[in-house]
Amino acid sequence: MAINFSITSAVTPNGRTVFNAQRINSTEAKFNIGSKTRYEGNVGLFNTSVTAGIIYKPEDYTTEYGFWAYFIYPTALAESSGSFKCLNTYDRAQFTFSFMQYAAHVPNGDFVNFFKKLLQLPNASEYFPKLVLSNNRIFYKSSNGTLSPLENDSSSQALMDYLNPTLNDIENQELICAARFVHWATNDASHRKTQVATAIDMYKENMKSYHKRYRLDNVPANVCQMICDIRHQGRAKSDRIALALNTNGNYDKAFSNLCTIGDTNYQTRINTVRSTIKKLTDLGKFSMKYDAGSGEFVKIQ
To answer: For residues 20 and 33, what is the distance between their CA atoms, to the nearest angstrom?
Structure first.
C-alpha cells in the first residue's frame, strides 16, 4: 500500500517557512521536510538538519566496505555533515538528495543510479507507486499502464520535472517527493545502505578513471581523497589538478597544492575535508595508498 503524507507549513520566529509532513493513517509524529529558500532567482527546499542515528558513520560500514568506508567520509562531512536526509531542490539540478548530495540533472549520474537502486528495494512501490524500473530505465506508469520514460543516456529532465516541476515556486509534487525521500531515509536502513553503496561504487569507478588521467598508482590516500573531493564538487578541471600533482613524487607538497584549489570560494569545505583526513590519519585509518592494478587501497608499509 502506498505511503501518503499530509503536508503543513509554519513560519519560524526568524521568518523562515518550514514544511512538515505526517504519514496518513499512522501514529507517527510529524517530521521536517525542509525549509523554503531562494537561490539565484529560484525557489526551493533545503534540509541540512542533522539527526542522531541518521548520520553516516564509517565504522558502521567497514565490515562490508573496508577502507572505502573511511575514504568517502571527508566528502560526506563536507557535503552534508553526514546527514542521510540532506535535501535541496533550489538549484539547476532541481532535486538533490543524500549524504553525498546526488544531483538529478546528470544523465546516468549519481542520483539516477542511486534512484534505480532504490526502486529495486522491496518497499519501493510504497514510496513511489507510479515509478517502475524497466530495462534499467526509470519510467512513469500511468493509470492505464502506459509507460513513459523519465531518463535516458542524454537527459534526465523528465525525472527532474517529476520530482520538482519548476524552480519558480514550491509545488505540492515537490513537497510530496521530498517527504518520501526524507521519510524513507529516516525509517529504512536499506535506503541508507543504498546511499552508501552508491557512494562507494562511484568513488571506486572515479579512482580508476582518475588514475588514467593523473597516474595515481601508489599515491597516498590523502592525495587521492582530495582529488576525488575536488572532482565531486567540481571546483577545478583536470589540468589544474594535474599541475598541483606535478611535484616529482613529493606527495606532501601535492596535497598542499590540492588544498589551495578553490580556496577563494570554498575554504570552509577544504578545511572540513583536510581536517577530517587528518583526524582519520591520526587514528591510523588513512595510512593507505592506491594500487591501480587491483583498484583498491593497500597499507603503506
So the answer is: 5
